Amino acid sequence: MSELVLKGVPAAGGIAYGPAFILDKQEFIVPKRTIMPEEADCEIARFEEAIGQARLEINVLKEEIVRNIGPEQARILDAHLMVLEDPTLLGQVTSGIRRHQQAAEYVFFNVIKQYMAALSKIQDEYLRERAADVNDIARRILKFLTQEDKWHDLDLLQQDSIIVAHDISPSDAVGMYHQKIIAFVTDIGGRTSHTAIIAKSLRVPAVVGLKDATLRVSNGDFLIVDGKKGLIIINPIQPTRELYTKEQSKIHASLEKLEDLRDLPAQTMDGKRVSILANLELSRETDNVRKFGAEGIGLYRTEFLYMNRLDLPGEDEQYEAYRRVAEAVAPFPVTIRTLDIGGDKFISSVQVPKDMSPFLGCRAIRFCLERQDIFTTQLRAILRASVHGRIQMMYPMISGLSELRQANAILGDVRRSLREGRILFDDQIKVGVMIEVPSAVMTADALAKEADFFSIGTNDLIQYTLAVDRVNEKTAHLYEPSHPALLRMIQRTVDEGHKEGIPVGLCGEMASDPALALLLLGMGLDELSMSPSSVLTVKKMVRSLKFSDAQRVAEEAMQMLTGQEVEEYVTVQLNKLLPHLL
Ligand code: PEP
Ligand code: MG
Protein backbone atom coordinates (compact mmCIF):
# COMPACT_ATOMS: atom_id res chain seq x y z
CA MET A 1 0.00 0.00 0.00
CA SER A 2 1.46 3.39 -0.89
CA GLU A 3 0.98 6.48 1.18
CA LEU A 4 -1.16 9.40 0.07
CA VAL A 5 -0.42 13.00 1.01
CA LEU A 6 -3.21 15.60 1.15
CA LYS A 7 -2.53 19.30 1.51
CA GLY A 8 -4.89 21.54 3.42
CA VAL A 9 -4.74 24.67 5.53
CA PRO A 10 -2.52 24.52 8.63
CA ALA A 11 -4.73 25.31 11.61
CA ALA A 12 -3.01 24.11 14.79
CA GLY A 13 0.62 23.05 14.92
CA GLY A 14 2.09 19.77 16.12
CA ILE A 15 2.31 16.24 14.83
CA ALA A 16 -0.02 13.33 15.52
CA TYR A 17 -0.05 9.73 14.36
CA GLY A 18 -2.99 7.41 14.85
CA PRO A 19 -6.08 5.76 13.37
CA ALA A 20 -8.75 7.82 11.66
CA PHE A 21 -12.26 8.05 13.01
CA ILE A 22 -14.68 9.38 10.42
CA LEU A 23 -17.32 11.51 11.96
CA ASP A 24 -20.02 11.31 9.37
CA LYS A 25 -23.59 12.36 9.43
CA GLN A 26 -24.66 9.52 7.23
CA GLU A 27 -28.14 8.09 7.39
CA PHE A 28 -28.67 5.01 9.48
CA ILE A 29 -29.79 1.90 7.65
CA VAL A 30 -31.92 -0.41 9.74
CA PRO A 31 -33.31 -3.57 8.14
CA LYS A 32 -37.08 -4.14 8.26
CA ARG A 33 -38.04 -7.04 10.53
CA THR A 34 -41.65 -8.16 11.07
CA ILE A 35 -42.72 -9.74 14.31
CA MET A 36 -45.55 -11.98 15.46
CA PRO A 37 -48.36 -10.15 17.35
CA GLU A 38 -47.45 -11.99 20.56
CA GLU A 39 -43.88 -10.64 20.32
CA ALA A 40 -45.02 -7.02 20.62
CA ASP A 41 -44.74 -6.85 24.42
CA CYS A 42 -41.27 -8.30 24.26
CA GLU A 43 -40.22 -5.71 21.62
CA ILE A 44 -41.64 -2.89 23.71
CA ALA A 45 -39.72 -4.18 26.72
CA ARG A 46 -36.56 -4.32 24.59
CA PHE A 47 -37.15 -0.74 23.52
CA GLU A 48 -37.68 0.42 27.09
CA GLU A 49 -34.55 -1.38 28.17
CA ALA A 50 -32.56 0.32 25.41
CA ILE A 51 -33.88 3.69 26.60
CA GLY A 52 -32.82 2.84 30.14
CA GLN A 53 -29.34 1.78 29.01
CA ALA A 54 -28.94 4.93 26.95
CA ARG A 55 -30.01 7.02 29.97
CA LEU A 56 -27.52 5.23 32.18
CA GLU A 57 -24.73 5.67 29.65
CA ILE A 58 -25.44 9.38 29.28
CA ASN A 59 -25.54 9.89 33.04
CA VAL A 60 -22.19 8.14 33.47
CA LEU A 61 -20.71 10.22 30.67
CA LYS A 62 -22.18 13.36 32.20
CA GLU A 63 -20.65 12.63 35.59
CA GLU A 64 -17.31 11.98 33.93
CA ILE A 65 -17.46 15.31 32.13
CA VAL A 66 -18.49 17.16 35.30
CA ARG A 67 -15.62 15.54 37.20
CA ASN A 68 -12.93 16.03 34.58
CA ILE A 69 -13.99 19.17 32.82
CA GLY A 70 -16.76 21.00 34.57
CA PRO A 71 -20.53 21.36 34.77
CA GLU A 72 -20.76 23.90 31.92
CA GLN A 73 -19.66 21.39 29.32
CA ALA A 74 -21.82 18.58 30.70
CA ARG A 75 -25.00 20.48 29.95
CA ILE A 76 -25.01 19.40 26.31
CA LEU A 77 -26.08 15.98 27.53
CA ASP A 78 -29.18 17.38 29.21
CA ALA A 79 -30.63 17.88 25.76
CA HIS A 80 -30.04 14.21 25.03
CA LEU A 81 -31.73 13.17 28.26
CA MET A 82 -34.71 15.32 27.34
CA VAL A 83 -35.12 13.47 24.05
CA LEU A 84 -35.21 10.18 26.00
CA GLU A 85 -38.08 11.48 28.06
CA ASP A 86 -40.18 12.85 25.22
CA PRO A 87 -43.60 11.16 25.75
CA THR A 88 -44.76 11.71 22.16
CA LEU A 89 -41.72 9.99 20.75
CA LEU A 90 -41.90 7.10 23.19
CA GLY A 91 -45.65 6.73 22.61
CA GLN A 92 -45.26 6.66 18.84
CA VAL A 93 -42.73 3.86 19.04
CA THR A 94 -44.70 1.64 21.40
CA SER A 95 -47.96 2.07 19.51
CA GLY A 96 -46.09 1.60 16.20
CA ILE A 97 -44.66 -1.74 17.34
CA ARG A 98 -48.17 -3.06 18.07
CA ARG A 99 -49.89 -1.53 15.07
CA HIS A 100 -47.36 -2.43 12.37
CA GLN A 101 -45.98 -5.60 13.98
CA GLN A 102 -42.45 -4.58 13.33
CA ALA A 103 -39.26 -4.87 15.36
CA ALA A 104 -38.50 -2.12 17.88
CA GLU A 105 -35.41 -0.82 16.04
CA TYR A 106 -37.26 -0.51 12.76
CA VAL A 107 -40.23 1.35 14.24
CA PHE A 108 -37.94 3.58 16.29
CA PHE A 109 -35.80 4.27 13.22
CA ASN A 110 -38.85 5.38 11.20
CA VAL A 111 -40.20 7.60 13.96
CA ILE A 112 -36.78 9.21 14.36
CA LYS A 113 -36.47 9.75 10.61
CA GLN A 114 -39.74 11.70 10.61
CA TYR A 115 -38.58 13.80 13.57
CA MET A 116 -35.28 14.60 11.95
CA ALA A 117 -36.87 15.43 8.61
CA ALA A 118 -39.29 17.80 10.31
CA LEU A 119 -36.57 19.44 12.41
CA SER A 120 -34.14 19.89 9.55
CA LYS A 121 -36.71 21.81 7.50
CA ILE A 122 -37.21 24.40 10.19
CA GLN A 123 -35.60 27.79 9.57
CA ASP A 124 -34.95 28.37 13.23
CA GLU A 125 -31.31 27.73 14.17
CA TYR A 126 -32.15 26.52 17.67
CA LEU A 127 -34.61 23.90 16.53
CA ARG A 128 -32.34 22.77 13.70
CA GLU A 129 -29.64 22.15 16.25
CA ARG A 130 -32.04 19.90 18.12
CA ALA A 131 -31.87 17.60 15.05
CA ALA A 132 -28.22 16.95 15.92
CA ASP A 133 -29.21 15.98 19.47
CA VAL A 134 -31.93 13.66 18.20
CA ASN A 135 -29.44 12.15 15.75
CA ASP A 136 -26.94 11.53 18.49
CA ILE A 137 -29.39 9.95 20.86
CA ALA A 138 -30.88 7.83 18.06
CA ARG A 139 -27.46 6.33 17.36
CA ARG A 140 -27.09 5.51 21.01
CA ILE A 141 -30.46 3.75 21.26
CA LEU A 142 -29.93 1.86 18.01
CA LYS A 143 -26.63 0.64 19.37
CA PHE A 144 -28.45 -1.03 22.26
CA LEU A 145 -31.35 -2.30 20.16
CA THR A 146 -29.15 -3.87 17.51
CA GLN A 147 -26.23 -4.78 19.74
CA GLU A 148 -23.97 -3.19 17.15
CA ASP A 149 -21.36 -0.56 17.68
CA LYS A 150 -21.50 0.93 14.24
CA TRP A 151 -23.34 4.07 15.25
CA HIS A 152 -20.16 6.05 15.63
CA ASP A 153 -20.62 7.67 18.98
CA LEU A 154 -17.57 9.64 19.83
CA ASP A 155 -17.55 8.24 23.32
CA LEU A 156 -17.18 4.78 21.81
CA LEU A 157 -13.62 5.63 20.82
CA GLN A 158 -11.46 2.92 22.29
CA GLN A 159 -8.08 4.29 21.35
CA ASP A 160 -6.36 7.57 20.55
CA SER A 161 -7.88 8.64 17.25
CA ILE A 162 -7.79 11.39 14.68
CA ILE A 163 -11.20 12.88 13.94
CA VAL A 164 -11.90 13.26 10.23
CA ALA A 165 -15.02 15.27 9.44
CA HIS A 166 -16.48 17.39 6.69
CA ASP A 167 -16.80 20.24 9.15
CA ILE A 168 -16.66 20.67 12.90
CA SER A 169 -18.46 23.65 14.36
CA PRO A 170 -16.78 25.57 17.18
CA SER A 171 -19.37 24.19 19.60
CA ASP A 172 -18.78 20.61 18.36
CA ALA A 173 -15.07 21.13 18.91
CA VAL A 174 -15.63 22.44 22.43
CA GLY A 175 -17.78 19.38 23.14
CA MET A 176 -14.94 17.08 22.13
CA TYR A 177 -13.18 16.95 25.42
CA HIS A 178 -12.31 13.46 24.57
CA GLN A 179 -8.93 12.52 25.82
CA LYS A 180 -8.76 10.03 23.00
CA ILE A 181 -8.90 12.69 20.29
CA ILE A 182 -5.36 13.44 19.16
CA ALA A 183 -5.99 15.58 16.07
CA PHE A 184 -8.71 17.15 13.93
CA VAL A 185 -8.90 17.00 10.16
CA THR A 186 -11.69 18.65 8.16
CA ASP A 187 -12.74 19.11 4.54
CA ILE A 188 -13.62 22.76 4.97
CA GLY A 189 -12.49 25.74 7.06
CA GLY A 190 -9.74 28.34 7.22
CA ARG A 191 -6.79 28.88 9.51
CA THR A 192 -8.49 31.37 11.80
CA SER A 193 -11.88 29.67 11.92
CA HIS A 194 -12.95 29.25 15.52
CA THR A 195 -12.71 25.48 15.12
CA ALA A 196 -9.00 25.90 14.41
CA ILE A 197 -8.70 28.19 17.41
CA ILE A 198 -10.36 25.59 19.65
CA ALA A 199 -8.03 22.87 18.35
CA LYS A 200 -5.13 25.06 19.46
CA SER A 201 -6.63 25.54 22.85
CA LEU A 202 -7.16 21.79 23.23
CA ARG A 203 -3.52 21.50 22.12
CA VAL A 204 -4.14 19.02 19.34
CA PRO A 205 -2.81 19.48 15.80
CA ALA A 206 -5.40 20.35 13.17
CA VAL A 207 -5.50 20.62 9.40
CA VAL A 208 -8.61 22.15 7.85
CA GLY A 209 -9.73 22.86 4.29
CA LEU A 210 -8.58 19.47 2.92
CA LYS A 211 -11.57 19.51 0.53
CA ASP A 212 -12.27 15.78 0.32
CA ALA A 213 -10.47 14.12 3.23
CA THR A 214 -13.68 12.39 4.32
CA LEU A 215 -13.86 10.67 0.93
CA ARG A 216 -10.23 9.65 0.78
CA VAL A 217 -9.76 8.46 4.33
CA SER A 218 -11.46 5.31 5.58
CA ASN A 219 -12.25 4.50 9.17
CA GLY A 220 -9.20 2.92 10.77
CA ASP A 221 -6.67 4.18 8.18
CA PHE A 222 -3.54 5.36 9.90
CA LEU A 223 -2.75 9.03 9.46
CA ILE A 224 0.08 11.41 10.18
CA VAL A 225 -1.23 14.93 10.79
CA ASP A 226 1.35 17.66 10.33
CA GLY A 227 -0.46 20.68 11.74
CA LYS A 228 2.33 23.11 10.95
CA LYS A 229 2.65 22.31 7.27
CA GLY A 230 -1.06 21.60 6.86
CA LEU A 231 -0.52 18.05 5.58
CA ILE A 232 -2.05 14.71 6.28
CA ILE A 233 -0.39 11.49 5.17
CA ILE A 234 -2.73 8.54 4.77
CA ASN A 235 -1.24 5.15 5.65
CA PRO A 236 2.35 6.43 5.73
CA ILE A 237 5.18 4.07 4.84
CA GLN A 238 7.77 3.16 7.46
CA PRO A 239 10.46 5.71 6.42
CA THR A 240 7.89 8.55 6.58
CA ARG A 241 6.79 7.45 10.02
CA GLU A 242 10.38 7.38 11.22
CA LEU A 243 10.97 10.85 9.84
CA TYR A 244 7.95 12.19 11.70
CA THR A 245 8.84 10.39 14.92
CA LYS A 246 12.21 12.16 14.81
CA GLU A 247 10.51 15.47 14.04
CA GLN A 248 8.15 14.98 16.98
CA SER A 249 11.04 14.34 19.37
CA LYS A 250 12.81 17.46 18.07
CA ILE A 251 9.69 19.57 18.75
CA HIS A 252 9.44 18.15 22.28
CA ALA A 253 13.10 18.77 22.99
CA SER A 254 13.01 22.37 21.77
CA LEU A 255 9.84 23.11 23.76
CA GLU A 256 11.44 21.70 26.88
CA LYS A 257 14.41 24.01 26.40
CA LEU A 258 12.10 27.00 26.20
CA GLU A 259 10.56 26.21 29.58
CA ASP A 260 13.43 28.02 31.30
CA LEU A 261 11.94 31.26 29.96
CA ARG A 262 8.62 30.77 31.68
CA ASP A 263 9.11 33.26 34.47
CA LEU A 264 11.33 35.69 32.60
CA PRO A 265 9.97 38.95 31.17
CA ALA A 266 9.50 39.51 27.45
CA GLN A 267 12.19 42.12 27.12
CA THR A 268 14.53 42.74 24.20
CA MET A 269 18.31 42.81 24.67
CA ASP A 270 18.24 46.62 24.56
CA GLY A 271 15.56 46.86 27.24
CA LYS A 272 12.22 47.24 25.38
CA ARG A 273 9.48 45.50 27.35
CA VAL A 274 6.34 44.08 25.74
CA SER A 275 3.59 42.00 27.34
CA ILE A 276 3.04 38.52 26.02
CA LEU A 277 -0.33 37.17 27.03
CA ALA A 278 -2.52 34.19 26.31
CA ASN A 279 -5.88 33.89 24.60
CA LEU A 280 -8.41 31.84 26.51
CA GLU A 281 -11.42 30.05 25.11
CA LEU A 282 -12.27 27.51 27.78
CA SER A 283 -12.31 28.63 31.37
CA ARG A 284 -10.82 25.29 32.45
CA GLU A 285 -7.65 26.08 30.51
CA THR A 286 -6.34 28.76 32.86
CA ASP A 287 -3.54 26.47 34.06
CA ASN A 288 -1.92 26.80 30.66
CA VAL A 289 -1.57 30.54 31.03
CA ARG A 290 1.23 30.41 33.59
CA LYS A 291 2.46 26.99 32.49
CA PHE A 292 3.40 28.47 29.14
CA GLY A 293 4.81 31.66 30.60
CA ALA A 294 2.10 34.16 29.64
CA GLU A 295 1.74 37.32 31.71
CA GLY A 296 -2.02 37.12 31.88
CA ILE A 297 -4.92 36.76 29.47
CA GLY A 298 -5.14 39.28 26.65
CA LEU A 299 -8.38 37.89 25.22
CA TYR A 300 -10.95 35.80 27.05
CA ARG A 301 -13.50 34.66 24.44
CA THR A 302 -16.55 34.46 26.71
CA GLU A 303 -18.94 33.12 24.08
CA PHE A 304 -17.78 29.57 24.77
CA LEU A 305 -19.48 29.85 28.14
CA TYR A 306 -22.78 30.17 26.23
CA MET A 307 -22.28 27.16 23.97
CA ASN A 308 -23.51 23.57 24.18
CA ARG A 309 -26.39 24.29 26.47
CA LEU A 310 -30.06 25.08 26.16
CA ASP A 311 -30.20 28.06 28.49
CA LEU A 312 -28.23 31.25 28.84
CA PRO A 313 -25.64 31.50 31.59
CA GLY A 314 -27.12 33.68 34.33
CA GLU A 315 -25.41 36.58 36.06
CA ASP A 316 -24.21 34.54 39.04
CA GLU A 317 -22.86 31.75 36.91
CA GLN A 318 -20.95 34.21 34.75
CA TYR A 319 -19.70 36.09 37.77
CA GLU A 320 -18.33 32.85 39.21
CA ALA A 321 -16.65 31.93 35.91
CA TYR A 322 -15.01 35.37 35.47
CA ARG A 323 -13.98 35.45 39.08
CA ARG A 324 -12.41 31.96 38.83
CA VAL A 325 -10.44 32.98 35.75
CA ALA A 326 -9.31 36.29 37.29
CA GLU A 327 -8.23 34.61 40.51
CA ALA A 328 -6.46 31.81 38.67
CA VAL A 329 -4.17 34.20 36.82
CA ALA A 330 -3.83 36.94 39.48
CA PRO A 331 -1.75 39.04 39.92
CA PHE A 332 -1.68 39.02 36.12
CA PRO A 333 -4.49 40.74 34.20
CA VAL A 334 -7.45 39.28 32.30
CA THR A 335 -9.15 41.06 29.44
CA ILE A 336 -12.71 39.81 29.19
CA ARG A 337 -14.21 40.28 25.78
CA THR A 338 -17.97 40.72 25.80
CA LEU A 339 -20.07 38.20 23.92
CA ASP A 340 -19.06 37.72 20.28
CA ILE A 341 -21.60 35.39 18.70
CA GLY A 342 -22.62 35.23 15.06
CA GLY A 343 -20.12 34.72 12.25
CA ASP A 344 -19.09 31.09 12.69
CA LYS A 345 -20.24 30.85 16.31
CA PHE A 346 -23.83 30.18 17.27
CA ILE A 347 -25.47 29.31 20.53
CA SER A 348 -28.60 27.25 21.03
CA SER A 349 -30.27 29.43 23.60
CA VAL A 350 -30.69 32.44 21.36
CA GLN A 351 -32.10 32.62 17.91
CA VAL A 352 -29.84 34.64 15.67
CA PRO A 353 -31.42 35.08 12.23
CA LYS A 354 -29.51 33.17 9.57
CA ASP A 355 -27.87 36.04 7.71
CA MET A 356 -26.83 35.64 4.10
CA SER A 357 -23.30 36.60 5.14
CA PRO A 358 -23.07 35.82 8.84
CA PHE A 359 -19.74 37.61 9.31
CA LEU A 360 -21.33 40.81 8.01
CA GLY A 361 -24.56 40.31 9.87
CA CYS A 362 -25.86 40.58 13.40
CA ARG A 363 -22.65 39.61 15.15
CA ALA A 364 -20.78 40.57 18.33
CA ILE A 365 -21.50 44.09 19.61
CA ARG A 366 -24.34 44.47 17.09
CA PHE A 367 -26.08 41.49 18.65
CA CYS A 368 -25.45 42.78 22.18
CA LEU A 369 -26.85 46.20 21.36
CA GLU A 370 -29.98 44.50 20.07
CA ARG A 371 -30.28 42.03 22.95
CA GLN A 372 -29.57 44.41 25.78
CA ASP A 373 -30.99 41.95 28.31
CA ILE A 374 -28.19 39.49 27.49
CA PHE A 375 -25.57 42.25 27.30
CA THR A 376 -26.58 43.79 30.62
CA THR A 377 -26.43 40.44 32.40
CA GLN A 378 -22.90 39.93 31.14
CA LEU A 379 -21.77 43.46 32.01
CA ARG A 380 -23.13 43.08 35.56
CA ALA A 381 -21.25 39.80 35.95
CA ILE A 382 -18.00 41.29 34.62
CA LEU A 383 -18.24 44.36 36.87
CA ARG A 384 -19.05 42.26 39.92
CA ALA A 385 -16.08 40.00 39.19
CA SER A 386 -13.82 43.03 38.70
CA VAL A 387 -13.08 43.27 42.42
CA HIS A 388 -11.27 39.95 42.17
CA GLY A 389 -7.94 39.90 40.41
CA ARG A 390 -7.15 42.39 37.64
CA ILE A 391 -10.00 42.49 35.18
CA GLN A 392 -10.41 44.74 32.19
CA MET A 393 -12.98 44.40 29.44
CA MET A 394 -13.38 45.10 25.74
CA TYR A 395 -16.06 45.15 23.06
CA PRO A 396 -15.72 43.12 19.85
CA MET A 397 -16.34 44.39 16.33
CA ILE A 398 -16.81 48.04 17.10
CA SER A 399 -17.18 49.79 13.75
CA GLY A 400 -17.19 53.39 14.91
CA LEU A 401 -17.68 55.85 17.72
CA SER A 402 -21.46 55.66 17.92
CA GLU A 403 -21.35 51.93 18.68
CA LEU A 404 -18.73 52.51 21.35
CA ARG A 405 -20.87 55.23 22.89
CA GLN A 406 -23.99 53.05 22.85
CA ALA A 407 -22.12 50.21 24.54
CA ASN A 408 -20.63 52.58 27.10
CA ALA A 409 -24.04 54.10 27.81
CA ILE A 410 -25.38 50.65 28.69
CA LEU A 411 -22.28 50.06 30.80
CA GLY A 412 -22.98 53.38 32.54
CA ASP A 413 -26.51 52.22 33.42
CA VAL A 414 -25.13 48.96 34.75
CA ARG A 415 -22.60 50.82 36.90
CA ARG A 416 -25.36 53.03 38.29
CA SER A 417 -27.61 50.13 39.12
CA LEU A 418 -24.77 48.29 40.89
CA ARG A 419 -23.97 51.40 42.87
CA GLU A 420 -27.62 51.77 43.84
CA GLY A 421 -27.66 48.15 44.96
CA ARG A 422 -24.46 48.77 46.92
CA ILE A 423 -22.73 46.05 44.97
CA LEU A 424 -18.98 46.40 44.81
CA PHE A 425 -17.09 46.70 41.55
CA ASP A 426 -13.86 48.24 40.30
CA ASP A 427 -14.88 51.77 39.33
CA GLN A 428 -11.57 52.26 37.50
CA ILE A 429 -12.04 49.19 35.28
CA LYS A 430 -10.40 49.72 31.90
CA VAL A 431 -12.73 49.45 28.94
CA GLY A 432 -11.12 48.80 25.58
CA VAL A 433 -12.11 48.46 21.96
CA MET A 434 -11.24 45.65 19.60
CA ILE A 435 -10.03 47.04 16.33
CA GLU A 436 -11.10 44.48 13.79
CA VAL A 437 -13.16 46.38 11.25
CA PRO A 438 -11.51 48.77 8.75
CA SER A 439 -13.87 51.59 9.71
CA ALA A 440 -12.58 51.36 13.28
CA VAL A 441 -9.02 51.74 11.99
CA MET A 442 -9.98 54.77 9.96
CA THR A 443 -11.66 56.38 12.97
CA ALA A 444 -9.08 55.17 15.50
CA ASP A 445 -8.20 58.79 16.33
CA ALA A 446 -11.76 59.36 17.61
CA LEU A 447 -12.08 55.96 19.28
CA ALA A 448 -8.76 56.41 21.09
CA LYS A 449 -10.16 59.47 22.88
CA GLU A 450 -12.94 57.41 24.44
CA ALA A 451 -11.28 54.02 24.94
CA ASP A 452 -8.80 52.93 27.58
CA PHE A 453 -6.94 50.61 25.22
CA PHE A 454 -7.05 49.04 21.78
CA SER A 455 -6.72 45.38 20.96
CA ILE A 456 -6.33 44.63 17.27
CA GLY A 457 -8.23 41.51 16.18
CA THR A 458 -6.41 40.61 13.02
CA ASN A 459 -8.36 37.41 12.38
CA ASP A 460 -11.32 39.59 11.49
CA LEU A 461 -9.40 42.66 10.36
CA ILE A 462 -7.76 40.55 7.64
CA GLN A 463 -11.07 39.16 6.40
CA TYR A 464 -12.79 42.54 6.40
CA THR A 465 -9.84 44.41 4.87
CA LEU A 466 -9.04 41.91 2.14
CA ALA A 467 -12.66 40.75 1.62
CA VAL A 468 -11.58 37.15 2.26
CA ASP A 469 -13.84 34.93 4.35
CA ARG A 470 -11.77 33.58 7.25
CA VAL A 471 -13.49 30.19 7.20
CA ASN A 472 -13.44 29.52 3.47
CA GLU A 473 -10.73 27.11 2.34
CA LYS A 474 -11.20 28.12 -1.29
CA THR A 475 -9.86 31.59 -0.63
CA ALA A 476 -7.39 30.60 2.10
CA HIS A 477 -4.43 31.50 -0.13
CA LEU A 478 -5.69 35.10 -0.27
CA TYR A 479 -5.91 35.39 3.50
CA GLU A 480 -2.58 37.17 3.98
CA PRO A 481 -1.55 38.58 7.37
CA SER A 482 1.48 40.11 5.67
CA HIS A 483 -0.56 42.08 3.11
CA PRO A 484 0.65 45.71 2.95
CA ALA A 485 -2.91 46.97 3.45
CA LEU A 486 -3.13 45.11 6.74
CA LEU A 487 0.28 46.30 7.90
CA ARG A 488 -0.75 49.88 7.23
CA MET A 489 -3.98 49.34 9.14
CA ILE A 490 -2.05 48.00 12.12
CA GLN A 491 0.51 50.80 12.01
CA ARG A 492 -2.19 53.42 11.83
CA THR A 493 -3.98 51.93 14.84
CA VAL A 494 -0.76 51.80 16.86
CA ASP A 495 0.08 55.41 16.00
CA GLU A 496 -3.41 56.75 16.73
CA GLY A 497 -3.59 54.87 20.02
CA HIS A 498 -0.18 56.10 21.10
CA LYS A 499 -1.00 59.71 20.15
CA GLU A 500 -3.76 59.54 22.77
CA GLY A 501 -1.50 57.74 25.22
CA ILE A 502 -3.40 54.43 25.29
CA PRO A 503 -1.75 51.00 24.97
CA VAL A 504 -2.27 49.01 21.78
CA GLY A 505 -2.23 45.22 21.75
CA LEU A 506 -2.93 42.56 19.14
CA CYS A 507 -4.74 39.30 19.82
CA GLY A 508 -5.25 37.69 16.40
CA GLU A 509 -3.57 34.47 15.36
CA MET A 510 -0.81 36.33 13.51
CA ALA A 511 0.80 37.15 16.87
CA SER A 512 1.60 33.43 17.26
CA ASP A 513 3.83 33.40 14.20
CA PRO A 514 7.36 34.33 15.35
CA ALA A 515 8.32 35.98 12.03
CA LEU A 516 5.20 38.15 12.03
CA ALA A 517 5.55 38.78 15.76
CA LEU A 518 9.02 40.16 15.05
CA LEU A 519 7.42 42.58 12.62
CA LEU A 520 4.68 43.52 15.13
CA LEU A 521 7.27 44.15 17.81
CA GLY A 522 9.06 46.54 15.47
CA MET A 523 5.78 48.30 14.67
CA GLY A 524 5.48 49.30 18.31
CA LEU A 525 2.69 47.08 19.70
CA ASP A 526 2.68 47.09 23.47
CA GLU A 527 1.10 43.71 23.91
CA LEU A 528 0.78 40.47 21.95
CA SER A 529 -1.84 37.91 22.96
CA MET A 530 -1.84 34.43 21.44
CA SER A 531 -2.66 30.80 21.99
CA PRO A 532 -0.74 29.70 25.11
CA SER A 533 1.34 27.11 23.25
CA SER A 534 3.02 29.85 21.17
CA VAL A 535 3.95 32.12 24.06
CA LEU A 536 7.38 30.65 24.87
CA THR A 537 8.58 30.70 21.27
CA VAL A 538 7.56 34.33 20.82
CA LYS A 539 9.09 35.24 24.17
CA LYS A 540 12.33 33.59 23.10
CA MET A 541 12.28 35.70 19.93
CA VAL A 542 11.72 38.93 21.88
CA ARG A 543 14.48 38.17 24.39
CA SER A 544 17.03 37.22 21.74
CA LEU A 545 17.17 40.42 19.72
CA LYS A 546 17.37 44.16 19.95
CA PHE A 547 14.29 46.34 19.59
CA SER A 548 16.28 48.43 17.13
CA ASP A 549 16.65 45.33 14.91
CA ALA A 550 12.91 44.71 15.03
CA GLN A 551 12.25 48.37 14.17
CA ARG A 552 14.59 48.14 11.19
CA VAL A 553 12.77 45.01 9.96
CA ALA A 554 9.38 46.75 10.35
CA GLU A 555 10.52 49.89 8.54
CA GLU A 556 11.84 47.84 5.66
CA ALA A 557 8.72 45.63 5.50
CA MET A 558 6.43 48.67 5.47
CA GLN A 559 8.04 49.77 2.19
CA MET A 560 7.19 46.51 0.43
CA LEU A 561 4.32 46.25 -1.98
CA THR A 562 3.11 42.66 -1.76
CA GLY A 563 2.28 40.28 1.06
CA GLN A 564 4.51 37.62 -0.40
CA GLU A 565 7.54 39.94 -0.40
CA VAL A 566 6.86 40.85 3.25
CA GLU A 567 6.43 37.24 4.29
CA GLU A 568 9.64 36.12 2.64
CA TYR A 569 11.53 39.08 4.03
CA VAL A 570 10.44 38.63 7.67
CA THR A 571 11.13 34.89 7.53
CA VAL A 572 14.66 35.50 6.21
CA GLN A 573 15.25 38.21 8.82
CA LEU A 574 14.08 36.00 11.66
CA ASN A 575 16.36 33.20 10.48
CA LYS A 576 19.27 35.62 10.28
CA LEU A 577 18.71 37.07 13.73
CA LEU A 578 17.76 33.79 15.35
CA PRO A 579 18.90 30.89 13.20
CA HIS A 580 17.78 28.17 15.60
CA LEU A 581 14.39 29.47 16.71
CA LEU A 582 12.29 27.65 14.13
C1 PEP B 1 -9.78 38.46 15.95
O1 PEP B 1 -10.73 38.69 15.20
O2 PEP B 1 -8.58 38.61 15.61
C2 PEP B 1 -10.01 37.99 17.31
C3 PEP B 1 -9.02 37.89 18.14
O3 PEP B 1 -11.27 37.61 17.67
P1 PEP B 1 -11.99 36.29 17.13
O4 PEP B 1 -10.93 35.41 16.50
O5 PEP B 1 -12.61 35.61 18.30
O6 PEP B 1 -12.97 36.79 16.15
MG1 MG C 1 -12.69 38.88 15.98
Give structural notes.
The chain is α/β, with parallel strands linked by helices and 582 residues long. It has three domains: 4-24 and 154-254, Phosphohistidine domain (Glucose Oxidase, domain 1, 3-Layer(bba) Sandwich), CATH 3.50.30.10; 37-146, Enzyme I, Chain A, domain 2, CATH 1.10.274.10; 264-545, TIM Barrel (Alpha-Beta Barrel). Helix content is 48%, strand content 13%. The chain is built from 23 helices and 16 strands. It has an eight-stranded mixed beta sheet. The protein is globular, with a radius of gyration of 25 Å. It starts with a strand and ends in a 5-residue tail after the last helix. The model has no long low-confidence stretch (mean pLDDT 90). The structure holds phosphoenolpyruvate and magnesium ion. Magnesium ion binds next to α18.
Can you give me a brief rundown of this structure?
Helix 1 packs across helix 6 (about 125-145), helix 5 packs antiparallel against helix 6 and helix 20 (about 515-520) packs across helix 23 (about 565-575). About 50% of the residues lie in helices and about 15% in strands. The chain has helices at about 40-70, 70-75, 75-85, 85-100, 105-120, 125-145, 170-175, 195-200, 215, 240-260, 285-290, 315-330, 365-370, 370-385, 400-420, 440, 445-450, 460-465, 485-500, 515-520, 535-545, 545-560, 565-575, and strands at about 5, 10, 15-25, 160-165, 180-185, 205-210, 220-225, 230-235, 275-280, 295-300, 335, 390-395, 430-435, 455, 505, 525-530.
